[in-house]
Amino acid sequence: MQKKSNFWGCVLYATIESLEWLLRIAVAVILLQTLFFKFTGAKESVYIFTTLGAEPWGRIGSGVVELIASILILVPRTAVPGAILALGTICGAIFAHLTKLGIKIPAVDDHGELFALGLAVLVCSLVILFLHRSQIPVVGPMLSPAY
Questions:
Q1: Which pLDDT band holds residue 1 (cuts at 50, 70, 90)?
Q2: Distant-in-sequence, close-in-space partners of 5: CB < 8 Å, separation ≥ 6
Q3: Which of 2, 16, 35, 45 has the most CB within a 10 Å radius?
């Protein structure tokens, strides 16, 4: 009976490991695909950051932070800091949508896709942090599961 439980334990571990990689890749892809628009000064990005009163420094600065978060989240050793950085950045974007921009931004032909991508990054980052909760600086030891 012991061997059977070890088998299912390995299957569960491999499943969680695969899920975590999918989540990390999803966050990185979403954040990286926005960089083209931010760094080239695409009209959509310029409009959004002008509306927020943060053009051009906010657009370029958030792009740099998203680039760093994307790199960190793909490196296993730095996945937790990457997820924290992605979470912080996307919370700012979601806050901007809820307070100034709106969920839909018709002026740039956005029908809520940007907001939905932001929510996806939020959820994926939270799940990554949950899976690595014991590694979160300062609060990690308090969040570790007691075995």
A1: very low
A2: none
A3: 45
Mean pLDDT over 63-76 rounds to: 98
Q: What is the 3-state secondary structure (H, E, C) of the chain?
A: CHHHHHHHHHHHHHHHHHHHHHHHHHHHHHHHHHHHHHHHCCHHHHHHHHHCCCCCHHHHHHHHHHHHHHHHHHCHHHHHHHHHHHHHHHHHHHHHHHHHHCCCEHHHCECCHHHHHHHHHHHHHHHHHHHCHHHCCCCHHHHCCCC
**Hey, how many other C-beta atoms are within 10 angstroms of the C-beta on 66?**
25
Q: What is the pTM of this model?
A: 0.88
What distance in Å separates the CA atoms of residue 105 and residue 110, rounded to the nearest whole number? 5
